Amino acid sequence: ASWHWDGEALTAANDRQGFLPLFYSAPSESEFWDSASPIQLINQGVPATLDFDAPGVFMRLGFFLANDTPFQGIKVLPPGATLTWRPGRLSIQTAPRAIKPYTGTRDAALDDFITLFRGAMEKRPPTDSRFVLPLS
User: Fold this and answer.
1) Which partner from 36, 84, 105, 114 sits 20 to 30 angstroms from 43, CA to CA?
2) Whole-number Cα distances in Å, 19 to 6, 59, 122, 132
3) What average pLDDT does the chain have?
């Protein structure tokens, strides 16, 4: 997630999969809050009023819908989105996600997965010699 304030507008964005959530609240035309934690927003003064419908959906489905959270005044930025806030105006743009079907063989898919997984692990080397990564 990232954000930038240019003195007139705040622009915030998250990763394309939404792995790093970005929560936000715009309680009035002149206020905007964002954080990686809804609890931090509440600690900063955003009301913790519960949205009873959202947890009900979560209990049935195991996830929240759209940008809902358990709190009325706190939302989460959708995956791969860019939020722009100017006093009195909030806009969110999401890019269409182009998903191409895999056309290779099963064996090629397994080889590709191993290569991609190995590359992802190489980007995050252990910082301690006692590092263990259990895999199943």
Assistant:
1) 84
2) 26, 21, 19, 22
3) 90
